[in-house]
Amino acid sequence: MDAVVQLDDVTVIYGRNQALKNVSATFAKGAVGLLGPNGAGKSTMLKSLLGFVKPDRGRMTVLGLDVAQSPLEIRARIGYMPENDAHIPGMNAVSFVAYCGQLAGLPAVDAMQRAHEVLYYVGLGEARYRNVDTYSTGMKQRIKLAQALVHDPDLLFLDEPTNGMDPKGRDEMLDLVRDLGHNKGVSLILSSHLLPDVEYTCDHVVVMDKGQVATFGPIEELKGPSGRVYELRIKGDLRGFLDVLAKAGMDTHATDEDVMRVFVPAGAGDHGAIFKLAADFGVQVRHLRPSVPTLEDVFAKAIGEE
Amino acid sequence: MSPIHDQSYRHYGGGRAIPGRSWTVIAWAGIKTMIRKRAFLGLLIFGLAPFLVRAVQMWISSNYPQAAILNPTPETFRQFLEQQDFFVFTITVYVGAGLIANDRRANALQIYLSKPLMRSEYILGKLAVLFTFLALVTFLPAMLLLALKVLFDGNFTFLKSNLFLIPAITVGSLLQVVLASFTMLALSSLSKSSRYVGILYVGITFFTTAIYGALYAITGSSRVSWISIGANLAQVVDVIFRLKPRYATPWQVSLLVIVGLVVLSISVLERRVRGVEVVT
Fold first, then answer.
1. Integer Cα distance of A188 and A177 in angstroms
2. Mutant choice from B114, B120, B271 vs A, greatest count of A C-beta within 10 A
C-alpha cells in the first residue's frame, strides 16, 4: 500500500487532556476518511500533520517527508481546508485565492489564472469578484476548498467540508471531493463525523475514538462480506431478546427506525439461527432481511457503540 | 465526445518560488490594501506637509541671505522627526491595529500557516506594511530634506560639517519606526478587534505619559521619565542627534526600556501567532 501519511506512536497532550494517545496509523494514497465522533482527535491529528501542534511523542511523515524536519516542503505540497470559517478579510474571492496561490509559491500571474480556474471548478465562477465577507456559509466552504486547491497540492486535508451546507450544496461538495480523489489524482484525507459523506467519497477509512485509532483499512474490507448482517424487527420483550442475541455472540445496534441491525459472526449460523432464538425466547419476528453492511456498522463496531 | 474546453480541475505545471519569500507577498498585499483607502492616502499626504514647510524654509534660507534666521541646524532635523511623532502615532493606529487582529477575527492565521511559510515570515510581512508607511513619514522625508539642503545650497558644506546627520536620521527614525511597529503588532495579536487594539495602544501611550506627568508634578524631577514610552524615545533620539537630553533619566535606561519593549513584543508575537489556539 502506498502511504501518503504515516503516524508512528504519536501522542499529543493539551494540558491534562491527551488528545492523541499513542496513535499509529497509515493513510493510503487516494481518498481516505478520518472518522470519529466529536472530540475523537481528528482535527488534532490534521493540525499535528500540518505542524500547528507539536506532538509530545512520536513521528509523523507526510508524502515521505518528516513533519518535524521538513514542514515547509510538506506544506508546499498539501492543501488544507479548515473546519471553521476562515478567510483573509477585505478581499474578493479571486484576489483571496490568488493571494493564497502566491503564498504557496506560485508566480503572481499563474496564481491569478489558477484562482479563476479553481473558482470555476468549485462553483464560484460567477461570484468570484464578490467580497468573501459577504459570502453565505456554503460559499465560504467552497472558497476554502478553492484556496486549498489553488497551488495544485498532492494531498488535501479536508476538515468537515460539508459543515453548515444545505442538502444540495452538500451533495455538490461531496461530488467535488469524490471527483478530486477518484478522477483528478489528488490524494485526500476527509475528516468528518458524517458517515455517509465518508462512505460516498472515500475508499479507505481511519476510525478514531477518544484519541486512539479504533480501526482502519479499506472500507469494503472493513464492511466484510454481505449477508452477515440482518435487519431485524421483533414484537415482544426487546431487552430480553437483545440479551439472548448477545449471549449467542451476535452484536446488535439500533438504526433510525425501530429496525435493529444484527451482526452474525462467522460460525454462528445464518438467519435460521435468529428465527430459532426468537422462537425459543417467545418473540415474534416481524421483519428480517439480509442487509448490506454500511460504514455505520463498521463505525459502531469500532467504537463499541450500542 | 470530449468538450472543446474543459473547465474542470487541471494540474499546475508552472514554476514555484522557493520558500522564504512569502513575507514580501504579505507585505505587498497589505500595502496595496492600505493605499486603496482614500482616507489613508489623505493622512499620508497630510503627513508630508511638515516636510514641505521645512523644504520651503530651506529654500528661502539658501536663496535669501536676509532670512539667515531660517538657516537649518542639526537640531532642525531632530525637530522635524519630533514633529512627525503625531503622524507616526496616527498611522500606527490606523494601519497597525488590524494587521493581525483582523486575521485573527477571520481565522486567517490557519490559512496563512498552512502555506509554506514560517510564523516569522508572517510577522515580518505584517511588520513590513507598518514599517513602510512609517518610514515614508520619517526616514524618507528627513533624508530628502538633507538632500534638498545640499541641492538648494549648491555645495556640500552643511553636509560635510554635519555628516553625523545621515546615521542620526537613520538610527533615530529606525528607533521610532521599530518601537511603534513592534508594540502595535504585539497588541494587534492580542485581540480579534482592531478597534479595541487601537484604543489599547492610545491608552497605553497616553497613560504612561500621564503617569510620568503626575510623578513629575509631585517630585519635580524628570528622573522617572522612563515610565513614559514617548519620553524614552525622545531621550534616546536627542542623544543620537548630539543634543542635550531633555530628561534626568540616563539615556541608557531609556534605551533599555525601548529594547525591553521590543523584546516583550517579539515574545508576545511568538506566543500569539500560531495556527491553532490551544486552550488548556
1. 8
2. B114
**Are B111 and A100 within 8 A, CB to CB?**
yes
By DSSP bridging, strand A78-81 and strand A251-254 are unpaired
pLDDT tens for each residue of A43-82: 999 999 999 999 999 999 999 999 999 999 999 999 999 9
Query: Could you tell me if A29 lies within 8 Å of chain B, comparing CB atoms?
Result: no
Distance between CA atoms of residues B237 and B171, nearest Å: 8
Tell whether A172 lies on the interface with B, counting CB pairs under 8 A: no
User: B191: distance to nearest CA of chain A, Å?
Assistant: 15
pLDDT in tens, A190-211: 999 888 899 999 999 999 999 9
| Contact with chain A for residue B97, Cβ under 8 A | no
Q: What is the ipTM of this complex?
A: 0.90
**What ranges in A183-235 are assigned the alpha helix state H?**
195-201, 219-223
CA distance B15 to chain A (A): 7
> Residues in chain B with pLDDT < 50?
280
Q: Are A201 and A158 in contact (CB under 8 A)?
A: no
Q: How close is the nearest chain A Cα to the Cα of B60, in Å? A: 46
Is residue B255 within 8 A of residue B229, CB to CB? The reply is no
Which pTM does this prediction carry? Answer: 0.86
Question: Across the beta sheet with A17-28, what order do the strands follow?
Answer: A17-28, A3-14, A57-62, A65-66
